[in-house]
Amino acid sequence: MLYRIKLISDEVENFLREILIESDATFLDLNRAILDSCGYPDDQITSFYICDEEWERKTQVTREDMQLDHASSYDEDIYVMESTRLNELIEDEDQKLEFVFDPFAERTFYLDVVEIVPGKHLAAPEVVRSRGEAPQQIANLDLADPAPKKGAVPADDLMDDSEFYGSESFNSDEFDPEGFEMSDESSYYRD
Question: Which residues pair with 9 in a beta bridge?
Fold first, then answer.
């Protein structure tokens, strides 16, 4: 059985990929097919989310097992791409998924299982439809000169240190730590 999965981006209007893939392929196989179809290197910690009809994320499938303490119990199952088959989490047409291709900026592709084709098989995933250029894989984050965030206060409007810390005539001997519920025996700073 095959899944025909449509892939779109909210960043690039004319971008579209459709991939045919075996239902018993792994999420890692789908990950590689998506990356190859977009010309992306396989060097990011990508992930999938199984979504409901309103695109609300429900189940995550990670590239690596991020659970550090395997002895502890979690309410949710941990799914890893290499060991999770598509048919374990995809049962119906119109199943919605998100594929996080840029983990730092949380940028995603939206996937939709548009057709389930019974009785057919493929040796490897196949891109059956490709339109438009894929968005750049990693967002260009200029950390030296970041763009101001919405609602950010311009640097010119910020107080200088003397306004923030008070006047230079401040005398630390006049400070009363009890007024701030602090003492030398504070439980926060024990050796």
Answer: 109
